[in-house]
Design goal:
The chain is an all-alpha fold and 685 residues long. Helix content is 49%, strand content 2%. Pfam families: RRN3.
Length: 685
């Protein structure tokens, strides 16, 4: 910054300097400055031209275009500037007495007060609040000298509570930050760290300064983002540093709901004026959302029914009492007594309840944020936004086990049009077919595809049939490849085959009506029970695909989740689709361990670890399908019309009678050699 020049008048000494282009357009007023809200990102309620009361002495006048400062009380700006220079000069020579005083002054720690109140508080040093502004403006001339040797001074200035002061001070402070990062590029990380650390502040008490009027949250946010926007405009390369700070300062999953809400709100504000960070910001929010989602789900699974009911009651109480307000000064954490905090059960219930509320608020906000982009679901904008959602889904959600609600963004918006349906299904099928991906990822993609097609109320019937046929063709291809070396069912070797088979059975259970070609005239399509026992004509190849693969050496009914297998068997039998009960009876005498590969194939390793070798659940697929019912209380409104609930079919009962019940005890330990099984029921390949 060029050195300042001065002129002396009878009333005041004026110092002018030419800084970087200011953030605010202004014209001078007695104590304040006028500014353009468009330039500063400051809205209503922050006008600096309010009525001014008369003063005993002449006050300070700032012009942000010129940083013009007139006399401050009995001291001139030139005197303050010389004081700052003297402190810095002596600091360089090893004398830190005045330098340390300067640090305290610029950190806002000295007891400043208005000169008019001097008689009311005579013990306070005769120093005015306005004087701190003079020191800050004076320091603008010395930012080129604020290198590593001035670390302490820089830290003090960055610790100053600038958000809770008046508008004029906030504007000067922003100008100082801009000058500092321009003159000292190495300070960029410090400055951005200070700004981002305030993203989680949400209550006026978080930035309040003694003897200053309370600053509303909206005004504090506007000041914060005015500073950040100015620095990003000044240093475009700052986006890389900023993204690192956004990630490191994100509240931990166990921090309060209030902090999470404030932080995400500020991230979404930043997203509006920083296009380069939009994708990264949404990815960051999604990744942290998934972590909370998984923890919440694991906590609920570990709870017994009584504790789960307590969580439900706590959520209901929170809604009734209005504790959802993120502006409330009485945060949940602060309202907990010390005795309650020591109670383990209370702590578990409260943690889970808070996580549910965090999830609910963030997802509700994201649904609302994305909705305008899908006003025309066939537009390029909709496809571009959905591609971003698919990217977050593929890299953040899909690889995460136990994610419960985060994936409903793609579920909801993926049903806005057939083009978007195809985009989601195509992404899942591509992952299922990619042999270079881990088996667990391909298995998860199958589960997501099946759950989307089965549960998506807006997924058209012809798409259901198409996906069923596509999966069936791939299933045939995998069977042909695997059967050449197959001795019997083995989930570790043939996981993609079994996950695809389970996906088909799951889709059948929910969407069987869309796999039908024609029905007798006496069937009422609005009454699902009227289909029972009828001679239904199914779409070509549907029955043959299922029969070929069910009765193959891979024996999927033994490996797929028993709950899904049993439901499929019941529906397939009652709708005259395929009769698989004999195969299921036969499978009761099959031991998966005899076909398993690896260290546990003989069960010895399991016995050493106290596993029950008769428990074969670890060798079977789980029944996890990711679009299970959405339970978050507020945001569920977005998906209620998109979702197919499971409804029992009136009159559907299992008429299959097990004729071998009496012999089960005798045959429990009998094992069947899969290599000797016949395929007499298998349709022609």
């Amino acid at each position: 910054m060029p050195p300042a020049t001065s002129t002396t008048t009878q009333l005041a000494r004026v110092v002018k300097s030419t800084p970087l282009k200011p953030i605010l357009k202004s014209s001078s007023s007695l104590l304040g400055i006028r500014r353009s809200s468009d330039d500063a990102e400051l809205d209503d309620g922050t006008n600096m031209d309010g009525p001014q009361s008369p003063r005993k002495r002449q006050r300070v006048e700032f012009d942000m275009n010129n940083i013009e400062v007139h006399e401050i009380g009995a001291r001139s700006f030139e005197e303050i500037k010389q004081e700052v220079k003297k402190a810095l000069d002596r600091h360089e020579r090893g004398d830190d007495e005045e330098y340390d005083m300067l640090k305290e002054t610029l950190g806002g720690k000295q007891p400043f007060y208005d000169e008019d109140d001097e008689d009311l508080n005579p013990t306070v040093p005769a120093r005015q609040r306005q004087e701190l502004k003079g020191y800050l403006v004076a320091l603008l001339s010395f930012t080129p000298r604020m290198g590593r040797s001035c670390d302490g001074l820089v830290r003090s200035v960055l610790q100053c509570q600038w958000l809770g002061r008046d508008d004029q001070f906030a504007n000067i402070y922003i100008q100082f930050l801009a000058s500092l990062v321009s003159a000292q590029g190495g300070r960029l990380t410090q400055v951005l760290s200070m700004i981002v650390s305030k993203f989680s502040a949400s209550r006026p008490s978080d930035w309040a300064v003694a003897n200053f009027p309370m600053v509303e949250r909206k005004v504090a946010q506007e000041r914060l983002h005015a500073a950040l926007r100015y620095i990003l405009q000044l240093c475009p390369a700052a986006t890389i540093v900023l993204m690192s700070q956004l990630s490191s300062k994100y509240p931990f999953h166990d921090e309060s709901k209030r902090m999470h809400i404030a932080y995400v709100d500020n991230l979404l504000r930043l997203r509006k004026y920083s296009p380069l960070l939009r994708i990264e910001i949404m990815g960051l929010i999604t990744s942290r959302l998934v972590k909370i989602d998984v923890e919440m789900q694991m906590d609920l699974e570990d709870m017994d029914d009584r504790l789960s009911a307590m969580v439900g009651m706590a959520l209901k109480s929170s809604q009734v009492n209005g504790n959802q307000d993120e502006d409330s000064d009485d945060s949940d954490n602060e309202s907990v007594s010390s005795e309650e905090s020591e109670d383990d059960e209370y702590s578990r219930v409260k943690t889970t309840k808070d996580n549910i509320e965090k999830m609910d608020w963030v997802l509700d906000t994201l649904f609302d944020l994305y909705t305008p982009s899908f006003a025309d679901p066939d537009s390029q904008e909709a496809m571009k936004v959905f591609e971003d959602l698919l990217s977050d889904f593929s890299y953040l959600i899909l690889p995460t086990i136990k994610s419960r609600h985060s994936q409903f963004l793609v579920f909801h918006f993926g049903q806005r049009s057939e083009r978007l349906v195809d985009a989601f299904c195509g992404t899942c099928i591509h992952i299922v077919d990619d042999s270079q991906r881990p088996a667990v990822l391909r298995q998860a993609a199958s589960a997501y595809l099946a759950s989307f097609v089965a549960r998506g109320a807006r997924v058209p019937g012809h798409t259901v049939l198409k996906i069923f046929q596509v999966l069936g063709d791939r299933l045939d291809g995998m069977r042909a490849t695997y059967e050449t070396s197959c001795r019997g069912p083995d989930v570790r070797r043939y996981a993609p085959f079994y996950s695809s088979m389970q996906a088909l059975m799951y889709i059948f259970c929910f969407r069987w009506q869309h796999l039908i070609k024609s029905v007798p005239d006496d069937v009422d399509t609005d009454d699902v029970s009227s289909y029972l026992g009828q001679d239904i004509e199914w779409e070509p190849e549907i029955k043959d695909i299922m029969r070929r693969n069910i009765y193959s050496k891979l024996n999927p009914l033994k490996v797929c989740s028993p709950s899904i297998t049993e439901q499929f068997a019941l529906l397939a039998h009652r709708f005259n689709f395929i009769y698989v009960y004999p195969k299921m009876e036969e499978n009761k005498r099959v031991r998966l361990s005899q076909f398993s590969v690896g260290a546990y194939s003989n069960g010895g390793g399991l016995r050493d670890m106290s596993f029950d070798v008769n428990d074969e659940s670890w060798q079977q697929l789980s029944s996890y399908f990711p679009f299970d019912p959405y339970q978050l209380p507020n945001s569920k409104r977005w998906v209620e019309q998109d979702y197919i609930q499971w409804r029992p079919i009136p009159g559907l009962t299992d008429e299959h009678e097990d004729d071998s019940d009496e012999d089960e005890a005798d045959e429990e330990d009998e094992e069947v050699d899969e290599d000797t099984e016949t395929d007499e029921d298998v349709g022609a390949d």
